[in-house]
Amino acid sequence: MIIKSKSVSMAESLKYLQDSDKEKELRSFIQKFTKRTPEDGEKLRNALDELDILILNSEDISKIIDISPKTPEDLIKTIPGKSLEEDETKKILETIKKIK
What we know:
Elements: H1 10-13, H2 21-31, H3 38-50, H4 58-67, H5 72-78, H6 86-98
């Protein structure tokens, strides 16, 4: 039974996986696509939340953590349909750069 639904990044999802054979296989698969540890993913989520950019929701932040864009253009492609101010874009990219 699902009690609560929450968007998490690939890195953050690793902390929810157990040590069964199926979940080890899934863990291995996810680790091919993310270089972040669950702790780093959580740290980056908290830092992005603290920026208090109202237009970003939990799903957007998860995408940003997963993709870790390096340029404003990449950031815009990561969250299509969202219009960020130049200073917001700068803050997000600086935060990603700081927490690697």
